[in-house]
Design a protein that fits this description.
The complex is a heterotrimer of chains A (about 650), B (about 160) and C (about 425).
Chain A: E1 10-15, E2 20-25, H1 28-34, H2 37-48, E3 62-65, E4 80-85, E5 92-97, H3 101-107, E6 112-116, E7 123-128, E8 131-136, H4 145-156, E9 162-165, H5 168-171, E10 179-181, E11 185-187, H6 192-199, E12 201-207, H7 217-233, H8 235-243, H9 248-255, H10 260-263, H11 269-274, H12 277-283, E13 285-289, E14 299-303, E15 313-316, H13 319-325, H14 334-347, H15 351-366, H16 385-396, H17 401-405, H18 409-416, E16 426-427, E17 430-431, H19 440-448, H20 472-479, H21 493-510, H22 528-539, H23 545-565, H24 595-609, H25 619-624, H26 628-637
Parallel strand pairs in A: 1-6, 7-12
Antiparallel strand pairs in A: 1-2, 3-4, 3-6, 4-5, 7-8, 9-10, 9-12, 10-11, 13-14, 14-15, 16-17
Chain B: E1 3-7, H1 17-27, E2 38-42, E3 47-51, H2 60-64, E4 70-72, E5 78-80, H3 90-94, E6 101-103, E7 106-108, H4 118-122, E8 128-132, H5 138-148, H6 150-161
Antiparallel strand pairs in B: 1-8, 2-3, 4-5, 6-7
Chain C: E1 2-6, H1 10-22, E2 27-31, H2 44-48, H3 54-57, H4 62-67, E3 70-73, E4 77-81, E5 86-89, E6 92-95, E7 98-101, E8 105-107, E9 120-121, H5 126-134, E10 139-143, H6 147-158, E11 162-166, H7 182-191, E12 195-197, E13 205-206, E14 213-216, E15 219-222, E16 225-228, E17 232-234, H8 237-242, E18 252-254, E19 265-267, E20 272-274, H9 289-303, E21 316-321, E22 324-330, H10 333-338, E23 342-347, E24 354-360, E25 363-371, H11 377-384, H12 389-396, H13 399-404, H14 408-411
Parallel strand pairs in C: 1-2, 1-7, 2-3, 7-19, 9-16, 10-11, 10-16, 11-12, 18-20
Antiparallel strand pairs in C: 4-5, 5-6, 8-17, 13-14, 14-15, 21-22, 22-25, 23-24, 24-25
Classes of the chains: A alpha+beta (about 650), B alpha+beta (about 160), C alpha/beta (about 425).
Chain lengths: ~650, ~160, ~425
């Protein structure tokens, strides 16, 4: 097996049906074309998962990947991606998580895990220093993620073992069950937990003590010093390091895209104050917590010291939990939100999909579309956190209404009907986390995202945070318009979203947290040039920023092709009905994305990628990316991109 | 003037940058297991404890070592000589802080990086400080001051202990 | 000031060199019965097994003595004349201002008929190991399964001998590792190919001119080499003769400053017995390197008129069998059995790991562990400080307290 710098050099293939494990080398070819992490995951998924299968089919893969920077001394490099055919959307699925699990995988000698097949009995995977084995998980089946972590550490005899696992939600194939590592870090969206639950793989435990080497240590450490310094001097990163992501709560209300009551209320100062970052830090946070090697330490450890949820302890909380467990359900009571955070972590459930579905259910209840009989007596008025908590238990164990709500929103709405699709806020089956009507770029990025509605696939953060904007000259150069980053400017959005997509893809391929990279800080955080320099010094292979961007383009195009094989095209790049209504009140009152604007945005975006008018990559685009076989395959299926101007 | 490493546990975020830089500057590779400072992470309790050599005035490790591999220099700094070490584990077991760590056939002990400890330089929160020994008890003075304001603080902490699983 | 140190082990050497550090003007002499510079007896089993070369176990060389201006005399001290403050060594006398007795201990002789035959050895000194190496035989019997017995059995086993380990009590190493700890120890030894025979009293060692075998449960068994590993007793002859007080357990009685019943005579190391308060049951601890070092330092200070009190007995033993560790901290089983109100708590915190803690009157006094040697210093500290049981477990639940006592967090892994 070739010895690399930075890479561990091995891929572990886990065949659960035959309970066999195989170690294959990480090839030069994969590295040159896809570099690592999410991108290599994507390449493998495309090649190995046939189109149109059910996500719970044994042929589906769950691919976990830690990029070359993971486990090195670069800032904020504790991340991994989990790529699969999503249980909730039935299309391309990908999620990302931090904590301390991914570096351990590298130290144990592996860059990627490819899990497929289906076990007859519950199993967990134990990986240590170049070796792996499948072990009996029957004692663990049924246990929540916290119990599972502790039990595995005790069974294998080492408290420093890193555990990634599913909880009862995954076991019960809740469509949005997730992977949990380090008790509170989630590879959340897409229902990867349900896919592993169907495969009966309960956990992946890793302990590694092997070295990762660096080709040019002196240069590497110099760049790292520069990056640490950038982070230290960046006001956004510093703000996040004090308050965590809840620093966003107040801002979203002030700017008028709060999203309360299933996106009906764009501004609510009282609730925003009750759920602000300042309040969280003052009343609940005990200290800061960080992922591996991260100087931003945006995490917290919290404690609830009074009230009905007194004694709730744990790590968190993220802004999107505040949104999905709180604001969207019109709950402004932090202790309840913290309790729900704990429950969803323990059960292994994505609280973002949960929030999208529950807030839909609450609106349905208030509109009479769901009756007390439908809810089996549960009062689902907005603001009722006790009911929400009860629902979490019921959904995990698929009891009563929980059984229906454990499905994806598209299916739920189909069953319930009565016009409830009007307020079902999802794109391609994945619920939106935040309000989209605050910037054309933000909305566009969610509409085109290959995994369904998501803010980390191209959403330009600069639209709502001037601190993150690039200079006007840069904007002109990159996006063709000086003011492309302004929220209500339509020009340049296609290129803007594409650039953000490339940036996040690069971060995911290399394994760095996006909070340390350019979408979150422009030139003043880690740029593509910085990453290319780092990668070169680390691996001894020459990379420049164009190489990274080309690789990212290749990855995104391949995702697109995966979905094209599943039957998706331009028609699925839409916004949900509510997002096409004008904003009713507040600072953004009147903001609306009409159909014509939307088509314009889509065209800009497809052209920016050199894709066809039907939203699928053209043959020319694919061949330019060395993806000729993919072009052949799509053409054969009649799903290739139709070039503009023909 | 003797200087010591001191920590403030509430500032430690458990990021392990200190482990990474220690191993890197000592051995030019990435492997936190080869660090001379280790972070004990109790994730469920939310506690992160940096563990490193205290360079004790009366080091127990030096007394238990049957081969004299551990010595205290005139600068007060403890050093472990890997040539003399026979790997009996006595030092690692007897150190009250667990400061002597073992990986890949070798025991490792912090030697304060010749007066410029890297962990101190790189810690993003200042959880580790390198201070004159007369100032080293500042964290402890703070603890004493806290216990004077006992009433209010104890009440809230007692509630925090409640869950204790 | 003339300081004489009788005995050239760890205690004697530390005493001499510490006294030298305090005052360069003293005249310091070490009397050595075997004439060897300081070596580490802890390493003798490894030397026996050829895992370490002879050079590795010596800790001092002749230059060290001349540099420190310490006279190293290869003579046996035969008498101390307390009245005239003079010692007698073969062929001469020497006056003194202070004496430090560091005369060590010797192997206990069990009451076995034939124990004095040639071919029966104990393993305490470097000389012993030389003799044993010259008498290796295919079948070896080790009598006594304490730490020395087990280490010797393992060493001889790795040299290719077929070893049988005999223990008089029902389980191996009963003084430090009661059941259930004796099980994994015995299993590990057996997996190394050592035959373990427990609950057996050896009544007779057979052989005409030299030991050729012994009687085990009525059967005659042939052994070409027999090791006596039944324990150590303090050497006290010259102290007794001089009229110094000998303690009830047979060691030279000393106070917290390592001073004997004579104000100018100090003692340290394997030969002493600490006079303690009645709560501290353990007052002699033969064969522990750290105590020899610590007591030697204390004796050296006090002999040099720099008052220093000793920190208490440092009480832990490590037994390494292959990749596992058996560790005993605090009081031994004999003393625990004699004491009242002992409460214990067992746990199996991780697979392959066993732990037990003992509390007397609510205070932590001992612990036993089997498994990994995973940073147990915090345990030892708690035992040294005799922590209260309720505080111990209470603090393990308390976040703030754990940060106040930084070593506590690591203990959480054991409970």
């Amino acid at each position: 097996m070739e010895k690399y710098f930075g890479y561990a050099g091995r891929i572990l293939r886990v065949n659960l049906s035959e309970e066999s494990l195989e170690i294959t080398p990480l090839t030069q070819d994969l590295i040159q074309n896809f570099i690592g992490g999410r991108s290599i995951n994507t390449k493998i998924l495309y090649g190995e998962v046939p189109p149109r299968i059910d996500p719970f089919d044994p042929k589906n893969r769950v691919i976990l990947g830690a990029g070359p920077l993971v486990g090195t001394i670069a800032p904020s490099v504790g991340r991994y991606n989990a790529t699969t055919k999503s249980a909730i959307t039935r299309i391309f699925g990908d999620s990302n998580a931090g904590g301390h699990w991914a570096p351990e995988l590298k130290y144990a000698g592996f860059d990627h895990l490819v899990v497929f097949g289906e076990s007859k009995q519950p199993r967990y995977l134990w990986i240590s220093n170049g070796k792996a084995e499948l072990r009996d998980a029957s004692r663990l089946w049924g246990k929540d993620t916290w119990e599972t972590t502790e039990m595995i550490q005790k069974e294998l005899g080492d408290p420093e073992i890193q555990v990634l696992c599913i909880g009862p939600a995954g076991e019960n194939r809740v469509r949005y069950a997730c992977l949990i590592n380090n008790l509170s870090r989630a590879a959340g969206r897409g229902g990867t937990g349900a896919v592993l639950g169907a495969k009966k793989l309960k956990a992946i435990a890793v302990r590694g003590t092997m070295d990762l080497r660096v080709s040019d240590p002196d240069t590497f450490i110099k760049i790292v010093e520069r990056l640490f310094s950038k982070i230290k001097n960046h006001p956004g990163a510093q703000s996040r390091s004090i308050y965590g992501t809840p620093m966003l709560t107040k801002m979203t209300s002030d700017k008028g895209f709060f999203g309360a009551k299933n996106f009906q209320v764009p501004q609510d100062d009282l609730m925003a104050d009750a759920l602000s970052g300042e309040r969280f830090v003052a009343d609940y946070s005990l200290k800061n917590k960080a992922c591996f090697n991260c100087p931003i330490h945006c995490g917290h450890y919290y404690a609830v010291t009074e009230g009905p949820y007194k004694g709730t302890l744990g790590e968190g909380i993220e802004y999107d939990a505040v949104l999905d467990l709180g604001i969207k359900a019109n709950i402004g009571y932090f202790p309840a939100i913290l309790k729900m955070n704990e429950l969803t972590n323990r059960y292994g459930m994505d609280y973002d999909s949960l929030g999208g579905i529950v807030s839909w259910a609450m609106e349905s209840f208030e509109r009479g579309v769901l009756s007390l009989q439908d809810t089996e007596g549960l009062d689902l008025s907005f603001g009722n956190y006790q009911s929400y908590i009860q629902l979490i238990h019921d959904i995990t164990y698929r009891r009563g209404l929980g059984d229906l709500l454990a499905e994806d929103l598209m299916s739920i709405v189909k069953k319930v009907g009565k016009g409830s699709e009007e307020w079902a806020c999802h794109i391609k089956g994945l619920t939106m986390i935040t309000e989209l009507r605050m910037g054309y770029g933000f909305a566009l990025a969610h509409g085109i995202s290959n995994i369904g509605a998501h803010h980390l696939r191209g959403a330009p953060m600069a639209e709502h945070d001037p601190k993150r904007m690039l200079l006007e000259t840069e904007s002109e150069r990159l996006f063709g318009d000086k003011h492309a980053q302004l929220p209500n400017r339509i020009e340049g959005k296609g290129l803007l979203v594409r650039w953000n997509e490339l940036s996040t893809t690069i971060a995911d391929a290399l394994g760095m947290c996006k909070f340390a990279t350019s979408p979150y800080g422009g030139k003043d955080l880690t740029t593509h040039e910085d990453l290319a320099e780092l990668l070169t010094a680390l691996t001894g292979m020459n990379f420049n920023s164009e190489d990274l961007e080309t690789m990212a383009e290749r990855t995104i195009s391949l995702e697109r092709c995966f979905n094209a094989r599943e039957g998706l095209d331009r028609f699925q790049d839409t916004l949900p009905p509510r997002m096409l209504e004008p904003v009713k009140e507040g600072p953004l009152q009147g903001f609306v994305i009409n159909q014509r604007d939307w088509e314009n945005l889509l065209d800009q975006y497809y052209r920016a990628h050199n894709w066809g008018v039907n939203g699928i990559p053209t043959r020319e685009a694919l061949e330019a990316l060395d993806l000729r076989e993919v072009a052949d395959e799509l053409e054969h299926l009649g799903r290739i991109g139709k070039p503009y101007g023909i | 003037m003797k200087k010591l490493l001191v920590t403030d546990f509430d500032q430690c975020t458990g990021c392990r940058i200190c482990e990474m830089v220690c191993a890197f500057f000592k051995e030019r590779l990435f492997n936190p297991n080869k660090s001379r400072i280790r972070i004990i992470k109790l994730e469920k309790e939310g506690i992160d404890i940096p563990v490193f050599c205290q360079h004790c005035e009366e080091p127990i490790c030096r007394d238990v070592c049957p081969v004299g591999a551990l010595t205290k220099g005139p600068d007060g700094v403890m050093r472990l000589d890997p040539e003399r070490c026979v790997g009996c584990w006595a030092c690692s077991i007897s150190c009250p802080y667990g400061a002597v760590s073992f990986y890949e056939e070798r025991f490792r002990l912090c030697d304060l990086c010749n007066g410029d400890p890297k962990c101190v330089r790189w810690c993003p929160t200042g959880a580790i400080q390198f201070v004159e020994d007369s100032l080293a008890d500042i964290p402890r003075r703070r603890v004493a001051a806290e216990s004077l304001a006992k009433q209010k603080i104890e009440g809230r902490r007692a509630q925090m202990m409640g869950s204790g699983e | 000031m003339r300081l004489l140190v009788v005995g050239s082990g760890a205690a004697g050497h530390t005493a001499a060199f510490e006294a030298r550090k305090i005052d360069p003007s003293f005249s310091i002499t070490i009397f050595s019965e075997d004439g060897l510079p300081l070596y580490s007896p802890c390493l003798i089993p490894q030397y026996l097994a050829s895992h370490l070369s002879r050079e590795r176990i010596f800790l001092k060389n002749p230059e060290d003595y001349s540099r420190a201006k310490i006279d190293f005399i290869h003579k046996k001290v035969t008498r101390i004349d307390l009245q005239n403050q003079v010692i007698h060594a073969d062929g001469g006398t020497l006056p003194y201002d202070r004496i430090i007795l560091a005369i060590g201990g010797h192997a206990k002789k069990p009451t076995i008929d034939g124990i004095d035959k040639k071919g029966v050895f104990s393993l305490k000194t470097l000389e012993d190991s030389t003799k044993i190496l010259a008498h290796l035989a295919p079948q070896v019997a080790v009598i006594g399964s304490g730490n020395i017995g087990i280490e010797t059995a393992l060493a001889l086993n790795s040299l290719g001998c077929k070893v049988t380990l005999f223990e008089i009590e029902a389980t191996v190493n009963p003084i430090f590792f009661p059941p259930p700890f004796s099980d994994p120890i015995q299993k590990s030894l057996e997996s190394e190919g050592i035959e373990v025979v427990t609950g057996v009293y050896i009544s007779q060692i057979l052989g005409r001119t030299r030991a050729e075998g012994l009687v085990d449960r009525g059967r005659v068994r042939r052994f070409g080499l027999i090791i006596n590993a039944t324990g150590i007793v303090p050497n006290t002859e010259i102290a007794r003769q001089a009229g110094l007080t000998i303690g009830p357990k047979g060691g030279i009685l000393v106070d917290g400053y390592m001073k004997t019943s004579n104000p100018f005579v100090f003692a340290c190391g394997d030969c002493v017995e600490l006079s303690g308060d009645e709560d501290r049951v353990e007052t002699t601890l033969g064969g522990l390197w750290p105590n020899a070092i610590h007591q030697g330092r204390v004796a050296g200070y006090n002999a040099a008129n720099k008052p220093k009190k000793h920190n208490g007995l440092f009480n832990f033993r490590i037994l390494k069998i292959k990749d596992s560790f058996a560790i005993s901290l605090g009081w031994n089983e004999k003393d625990l059995a004699m004491s009242k109100e002992i409460v214990l708590k067992d746990d199996q915190p991780f697979s392959g790991m066993l732990t037990r803690v003992y509390f007397k009157q609510g205070r932590l006094v001992a612990a036993r562990l089997w498994g990994k040697a995973w940073r147990l210093g915090p345990f030892i500290t708690c035992i040294q400080r005799e922590w209260k049981m309720n505080m111990f477990f209470h603090i393990l639940q308390n976040r703030k307290a754990i940060s106040r006592y930084p070593f506590l967090g690591q203990l959480k892994f054991f409970f």
